[in-house]
Design a protein that fits this description.
Elements lengths: L2 E3 L2 E2 L7 H7 L2 H10 L4 E2 L5 E3 L4 E5 L8 E4 L6 E7 L5 E6 L4 H15 L8 E7 L7 H14 L5 E8 L4 E4 L2 E4 L4 E4 L5 E5 L7 H9 L6 E2 L1 E2 L4 E4 L10 H6 L2 H8 L10 H14 L3 H4 L7 E5 L6 E3 L2
Parallel strand pairs: 1-10, 3-14, 4-6, 5-15, 9-10
Antiparallel strand pairs: 1-2, 5-8, 6-13, 7-8, 7-9, 11-12, 13-14, 16-17, 17-18, 18-19
Helix pairs in contact: 3-4, 5-8, 7-8
């Protein structure tokens, strides 16, 4: 009983986004405010990009990160957890897997970084998802809300822009309005955003969920300024050669929860990840030698992430 909606401690978790908006119209207003903000195209300098099944946590005085962000969200949800006093903030891109563990990690990391700040509350903001035909977004919304609700810390929901409020019709087909967001780590301001550059090691990072690894990976150590891809392993993916021989349309239909509304680069990214899996069938041996993570540090001259050798 620790979820706070519109300032009131809740006994029950809302069953879906429609019930949330019906019982707490203030969330319609805050969602409308976000939807009225123009979309920004954010470059790679100062950006920490979070892929699907990843999370990252930082603080306002982190000199390496000005914006935390994620996009390409259709049925997934972006979750932001922030301590209003310290400004410590976590962002995750969740697809339904590993939610309980991710929520615990986000809250714990933000609490640890907020130690010493007497004032402030833990706030959560949810953006993404839409009224998809299979209600995938609603299932993820309920799982996320349930995870926060059973956590022993009071959590203030301050923004929920999802479901019917994040849906528009094009040719009779529901589409998401906002596909991604960024958060200014200095001010806490959230805005709709697109990220042409999604950071280093994208095919390797996408290979995690394509091969069925459910955990949400924490990809950043703000105390060291290191982006990190922790070691993981998967069994050789049977049929990967066959997958790569298929048409773009086949891959789109088979490997997306929302093929009608995917951004145009979706299939290209999936192909790159499948090719990576094909070339690295035993990542514990060929990718993560000696069980070492891949580390990247912000280059002082270019502002881009560069590998730590």
């Amino acid at each position: 009983m620790v979820l706070v909606l519109n300032g009131v401690l809740q006994e029950d978790c809302p069953p879906d986004s429609r019930a949330l908006y019906l019982n707490h119209p203030v969330y319609r207003d805050t969602a409308a405010q976000l939807l009225s903000v123009p979309n920004k195209v954010i470059g790679p300098v100062g950006l920490l990009y979070v892929l699907q099944r990843e999370l990252a946590v930082t603080v306002p005085h982190d000199k390496n990160v000005n914006v935390l962000g994620s996009d390409d969200v259709t049925t997934c949800l972006i979750v932001v957890v922030r301590h209003s006093g310290s400004g410590a903030v976590a962002l995750a891109h969740l697809d339904g897997s590993g939610i309980d563990e991710a929520v615990c990690t986000m809250i714990q990391r933000v609490q640890d970084l907020a130690l010493g700040y007497q004032e402030g509350r833990i706030e959560v903001q949810l953006v993404g998802g839409f009224t998809d035909a299979h209600s995938y977004s609603e299932d993820i919304f309920f799982s996320i809300m349930s995870s926060f609700h059973k956590h022993p810390v009071e959590i203030d929901l301050t923004l929920a822009c999802l479901g019917e409020l994040n849906t528009t019709l094009r040719g009779g087909i529901p589409w998401p309005i906002i596909y991604g967001i960024g958060i200014n780590t200095k001010t806490g301001d959230i805005f709709p955003a697109t990220f042409p550059d999604k950071g280093p090691g994208q095919p390797l990072r996408l290979a995690r969920h394509l091969t069925g690894i459910p955990q949400v990976l924490d990809i950043y150590d703000c105390s060291l300024g290191l982006l990190q891809i922790a070691p993981f392993n998967y069994e050789p993916l049977r049929g990967v050669d066959l997958w790569l021989e298929q048409t773009d349309e086949f891959i789109l239909q088979q490997l997306s929860t929302s093929p009608e509304v995917q951004p145009p680069h979706f299939v290209m990214q999936i192909r790159a990840a499948l090719k990576y899996i094909q070339d690295n069938q035993f990542p514990a041996i060929t990718v993560f030698r000696d069980n070492r993570p891949h580390y990247f540090r912000r280059d002082e001259h270019t502002g881009l992430w560069s590998p730590v050798r």
